[in-house]
Structures are given as C-alpha cells and as structure tokens.
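Checked the freezer inventory, then went back to the computational side. Two predictions to log before the end of the day. The first one is the construct we discussed on Monday; recording sequence and tokens without edits.
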Amino acid sequence: MSTPLRTLDPVPAIADESSAAPATTSHGVFAGVLVASAYAALEILLSGPFPLKSGQVIGRWYTVAVFTYVFVYAVLGAVVGTLVGFGLGRLGWKRHNVIPCLSALLMLAFVANAWRWGWGPGTSPFLGLLPPFALWLLCGLLFPEDRARNFAGSPWPAAIVTLAPISVSRDLMAQSGSGSLVSGAVAGGIVAVVVALALLSRSRPSLSRLASGKPQAAVTLAVFLVSFGMLHVSSAHSAAAVSHTEASERPNIVLITLDTTRADHLSVYGYPRRTTPHLEAFASAATLYRHAYANGDMTLASHASIFTGLYPTQHGAHFEGDLRAAISAEVPTLAELLSKAGYRNYAAVANSVLLDPMYGFARGFDTYAMPRPLAVVSPRSPYLLRMGVYKITLPWLWTEAMRLFMPADDIAPVGETLIAGAGGRPFFLFLNFMESHRPLLRPDLRRDDARVAPTRRHFREARHQRRRALQDARGLRRVHRVSGSRRRRTARASAAGALVRRESRHRDGRSR
C-alpha cells in the first residue's frame, strides 16, 4: 500500500490532470471570453476616464456604449475561442495551450490593426512596439514546458504589453524618430515586470496559479469596477457654483445661435415647408428682423461680429489652416460691456472648435461652459481594436460613439443650471447649438425621436465625396485636354493638307 501512496500526490495530480487535458470547444469559449474581456477592461481603464480634459464630460449614453463594446468583444472572443479550442483539440494540444494561443492572436490582431492605420516598419510607433513584443516572446521561449509560460501567455500580460506602453508614453504617438526611444524604454520596463513575475512563478507555485481562469476573471471584473467607478467620480466635478447677489429690474438677455443655418430654409422667413414651427409661434409675439445679414461666411468671423458689432476685417478674429487669430484685445466684447453694467454673463457652447476661449469669446463671461463629449471611439486612438469593432456594433453607435459636439438636449440644461445661480441679478445667456451643422443625414423614418449629429465618420464620408468629385473633375479635364489635342492635331493636319493642295495647284498652274 505504501508504494501507491507515494506515487499519488493529490494536489499536483489534480493540477496536472486539468492542464494536461486535451483542448475542447467549451474550454475555448471560456478562454476566448476571458482574453477578450481582459483586453476590453484594460482598454477602458487606459482610454476612458483618465484622458478627461478641461471641459470634457461623459454623456449619458457613454456607459451603454461601453457595455455594448464589451459585449461585442466577448462575442468575438467566444467565436475565436471556439475555433481555437476545436483546432487545438484536433491537433492533440493540451488545454493549457488555449489561452497563450488566444493571447498571441490578440497581439497579432493589434499589430494588424496598427499596420492598417499606417504603422509600417520604420515609423516611431512600430519601433516602439518592438521591445515589448520581443521580451514577451522571449519570456514564452524561456519556459517551453513550464507553467510559467502560461503565466507569460495569459491575457493580462498580453494586454499590458499591447496597451500600456502607448498609454504611458505619449511620444509613441508623436510619429517622430526620438519618440521610439522613450516609448521603447517605457515598454521595456513594463514587460520586464512581466518577465520577472514569470521567473518568480517558476519557483513559486502560488504565482503560477495566477494564470488559471478564476483569478484572471476576478482581476478582469475588478478592473471593470474600478474603471466605471472612476468614470462617475471624474464626471462629478463638472458643476460650477455661482454666487447670489441682489435683484435688479433690468431685462435679461438670451442669445441663441444655430451653426450653419440658412434663413431661406426657415419657415418663419417664408420657406414653404414648415421647418420652424416653434420659432413661428415665438415670432408671432416678438419682433422679427427680416433684413439681418451675416458678416462672415464662417462661424468664427460671424460670431465675432455679433459680439463686437464690427466687420471681420475690423475685429481681427480669423481661422484658416494654421493661421488663427483671436478678437483684438483693444475691442470690447458684448459680455465685457454687460459685465460693467452689472450683468452676470453665462455661456453654454456646443461648437468647441471655432468658439473656443482662445479666440477671445470667453472675455467678460462669469462662466463659459464648453462641454465636449468623451468619445467612446476617438480618431486620435486608431490603434485600439475598438476602432475595428465599432463597425459591427449597433448603428446608433456610429453617431453616439464618435460624436464631436454635445447635442442641444445636453447644452440647454447647462444654461438653465447657470442662470439659476444669477441670484436675481440680470443675466446674459449665450447658447450655441450644432444640430443644423453639416453634414446632415436623412433621419431614420422608423423613429419619431431620430436625431442627427455630425460625427467624424460623416466628415470622412464628405471628404471622400469631395475627393471623388475632384477626381471626376480631373478626369474631365484630361478628357478635354485629350480631345483638345486631337482637335489641334486634326486642325494642323487639315492646314497642312490645304497647304499641300495649294502648292500642288500652284505647281500645276506654273507647268501650264
């Protein structure tokens, strides 16, 4: 009896039996969901609430959109895990090989997506990713038959190696030659920690158990909770306090501007289709100016004229490419004059590009709120796999996830909150809405509350249409040049033929 007892070691036997079991489809599904969820959790943690800048807010749709992406990640992970588990099982590979294979596929997908966005060999981001990937592969090759290899191949080291260097080192995104050195050093330090943990896991069984499914699932859930906890904490600091002062009988002033709105398409100004019924009701008991003209053909110049009463050539505000100029400091603005008259001045602006305080619009305002939505998908982070995932999500995410400006339903409550703190003093409220800004899409006829807002995708489509129009124009010019050259050759040939015929007739006359 002693011999069998010596050969049976309960704890290692159970561990070895579970790890040495052949790969199955069900295990592949679990591993795929785990790997995809770990990447999604770290992606949200590093790209969500942390980059909040001054004025950025988290929309009420942000949490729903993020959960939608996590669900899509999990579904894709389950599909890929099913295929990997089935394939490895047919090849006779063991269960503990499934997660490392999925982690490797995750990193390859990241590289392929980065390559698609122009991170080819020789670019700074590509060079910055080489050190962490090299160390990660080296860590796996050092332990070809040890459980430490599974620790190195678990989804968390793979996600950290992929995302952390980019989030920590902003030089990686600079596309400059010196940026690769800094990002490479940061990435190398991060992966060195992973390698050290893998080395320790070889001698400490407690660390090697971290590569199992339950601890990694617990860590993934914890990171999700921390991310969303910080999400709500970071959005709670946006409220602004306004002091209460004495009352006054002077009238309040409210100025509302609609970006890119043509008067000849408003029914209040005679457009045949009833496009502005509420403005018509308001104008019936108010003064309607029918001969008001914009002083500029762009948002910056027109608004500067509204705030100064001057022509664009006089107030100085200008924007064209890299040339940007603010309202002249010598010119007083409407808000400054009203502030001297005892008004409290507030603004809630949707156009965070051309009505930025850098152009002098905030002068004289007690509060100049310019909330900008925190995009779920940012054009500044094309390297994230989320940029590819959003194409297969719900259609509404095309608009909501890449929204560039806050909708009017979010801007108007900001203005109401601001004027509530005026304390009886006369106030000047400036509101700017972007719903009418181009490009516009036909509303969804299946929904009564359909709302269209400009997104980066719409700008990209408009740019593509302009590019195609330019190509067509160039093609027409080429056709005209070819046809013109043919006409010129034909004219030259006919002229030469006429000259030859003239000379032949002249010779015939002389011979007679």
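The second is the one RB wanted added to the comparison set:
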Amino acid sequence: MELTTVTPPSNVPTFINLAVCIGIKMFARAAAISRTGMTNLVRYSHSHGGIPGENLPFSLNNRYKLTAIFVAFFGSGLGLPFFVLRHQLLKM
C-alpha cells in the first residue's frame, strides 16, 4: 500500500483533514471491492436477463398458486403480532 502526502488547507486542522482523507480512501477502496464482487456475481450467475421473474425463487406462471404464496407470506407476518398478543393474554 502506497501512502501519499496530502496538503491540508490552512483553515482546517491537520489531524481532521488527514482523518477525512483516510476515511474517503477507505470508502473508495470498499466501493471498488464491492463493485468488483458484484460484477463477478452477475457474470457467473448464468442469468441472461430480459425475462421477467427469471431470478425469483417462485414461479409466476400459476396465478392462483402465486396468490396463495403471497397471502401465506404476508398473512403470517401481519398476523403474528396478534397471535403473540393472544398467547400472552391467555398466559395470565
């Protein structure tokens, strides 16, 4: 890793400017690594794109099955607090 010299402006203390420069470099490096990783994921995912729903974990072909899956998924999430409340009230 190569260190570069940064000349701070005269109105900003040196340690603050140095910390900002180091922080920016860290975020830039992390962004570059993330960008490279995502590019590789897309490249090797064997997905050609252009087909709606190709990358979903369920099928969009049967509308009744899809409706049942959505009702079960969202119904369980929205109904869970009421079942927990009922359970707590019955424990008393």
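For RB: The CA atoms of residues 48 and 74 lie 30 Å apart. Helices lie at 14-43, 63-91. Let me know if you want it refolded.
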